[in-house]
Amino acid sequence: MNDRPSPLQPTRRSVLALLALSPVAGALAGCATGGTRQSAAPAATPTGAAAAGNPFGVAQGAPIEVVVFDGGYGQTYIKLPVELYQGKHPKAKITQTATQQIQQSLQPRFVAGNPPDVVNNSGSNAIDYGALVKDEALLPLLPLLDAPSWSDPAAKVRDTLRPGVVEVGTHGGQFTVLNYSYGAYGAWYSSALFKEKEWTYPQTWDEYLTLCDKMATAGIAPWTYPGQFPYYMFWWLASMIYKVAGKEVIDKINNLEKDAWTDERAVAALKAFEAIPANGWVLKGSSGLNHTDAQMQFLLGKAGFVPGGSWLEKEMGDSVPAGFDMSICRVPSITANDDRPFGALCAKAGEPYIVPRSAKNTAGGLEFLRAMLSDESAANFIAQAGTLSSNRRAKLPKDAKHGLVSIDAALAEAGDNVFGVTLDTRDSRLWGDIAKVMGRFMNGDVKADQLAKEAQRLTDAARG
After folding, report:
1. With 80 as the cut, is the pLDDT of residue 272 above it?
2. Which range is the signal sequence, renumbered to this chain (predicted)?
3. Which of 95, 168, 313, 326 is the most buried (most CB within 10 A)?
């Protein structure tokens, strides 16, 4: 899955270094489609005339090949869009396969100019997006956005998408990547515990600190976190910065700009959270925990809050106690001049799909993505994967778990007050380096102003 960054996620530099060791290194020459290729031109795609129900003019009988990443979401969810596509194009031969080795199996095909028509370019072995963009190897997906949606021709596809889907899929100034899943990030609490203790989730930071004091008095550490992977704190701290400062400062952080972390509004948000470690409200030993250990402490009632994303509930599986009622946290109002209202949320689309520019059936590729974004396919994905889809209209299954229901409700409340952290994909090394400082911040070894200065120093160094 692409939703959760890994501390081992390769940078473009590391991917290209690996390519230099591969058998096709001479052909690749540090790029995705081969150093001897000219700038990629649109393929001679088998298309017919566009018509109602066939907006891209997919030719009757044109075969289509789809390759899916065989990751945490599995492959079952892709069967329904295959069936929907086949229903509208019954003469088409559809070949659908799965692999965990996207780069190793498909890079040579990009070089040869015969890639699949749709690729789920995900996982730690994904083809580097920087190289794909540089080589103009990706088909722009603007026609997809402007096409009528599969389930409601009166609405365009773009009108069915959740906030930020187009933004996070835009590379080199063009929308070229459709991220199919949609996750929320931040921190979690137990609604059942709050009900038992007669606690109300706070809407202001002062009330939040009062609640943390009540937790500590009750023998519950307000916070735990995976000290082995401190990047988990990134989403919650960034959410606080977004709450106070808005999109302007988050964009500066994502774009490695000057004075991003040291903006006084960002520092104010970090100083607010500083009270948590300063008061000893972080579970002892958290610095040595991995992600599942920290989450287990939370499930055992040892801590009131734990950082994480949409995957947490499914990841912990049967370890989640019955009736625990896991719920996503929303950032309380921190200052009187906050840029965003209560309910602002960190959320981002993930699980990227692309249509290679040199594919034989790019019209079919666009059509397949349109089928994937149908209300039916998106609802099926939610049921199969246990996470939301980029289609905002997709319904949750009746047996959806409490955490997923809480995310859906929180996103509905947040509306357009949603942002995404993209630094992890822009510069994973910088992401990890700043996260290490956040770990020291959680341990009380670094204060808020020191965290801001060090994060900015690292950012400036990475920018060069």
Report:
1. yes
2. 1-29
3. 326
